[in-house]
Amino acid sequence: MIKAVNRISIQKGRVQEVAERFSKAKSVHTFEGFVLMEVLIKEGTEEEDVIEVCTTWEDHESFNAWRESRATQKSHGSGDSGKKPEDNPILGAELSIYEVFVQHHPETK
User: Fold this and answer.
1) Rounded to an integer, what distance in angstroms lies between the CA atom of residue 3 and that of residue 38?
2) CA 97 → CA 2, 7, 12, 13, 29, distances in Å?
3) Which positions carry the signal peptide feature in this UniProt record (predicted)?
4) Are 42 and 8 in contact (CB under 8 A)?
5) CA–CA distance from 79 to each of 2, 9, 13, 84, 88 (Å)?
6) Distance from C-alpha of 77 to C-alpha of 83, rounded to nearest angstrom
7) Which of 48, 52, 57, 73 gives a 20 to 30 Å CA spacing to 26?
8) Contact by Cβ (8 Å): 61, 33
9) How many Cβ atoms sit within 10 Å of the Cβ of residue 63?
């Protein structure tokens, strides 16, 4: 199992605007091998706000299939000129991939 974490830097004061974009399920939830998505808003930042979009996948192949899909390319604007709209609150993003080594779940009764 792997976890993909996309750390998104956002203009200070605009974190809710960006977080709302993730509040409704999109195509990622339909992909084979998708397990879970979490959107985390970092607390206590000073210069910029930070969101981490964390998706958990059964394996690298499932994650890579999602990344390479046409739906993903369209939703991430890969067909545009590469220019950001002038009022875009997103300052940058960094993707990290982690192997899920262990998970502990609540005891069921």
Assistant:
1) 10
2) 7, 11, 26, 28, 18
3) none
4) no
5) 28, 23, 29, 13, 18
6) 10
7) 48
8) yes
9) 21
CA-based nearest residue to 25, from 73, 80, 71: 71
DSSP-derived 3-state class of residue 44: coil
- Find out whether 95 and 8 touch, Cβ atoms under 8 Å: no
Three-state SS at 51:
strand
Q: Has domain 2-99 been given CATH number 3.40.50.880?
A: no
The dihedral region occupied by 33, where left means phi > 0, alpha psi between -120 and 50, and beta the remainder, is left
pLDDT, tens only, 64-108 = 999 988 565 666 665 554 556 678 999 999 999 999 999 999 998
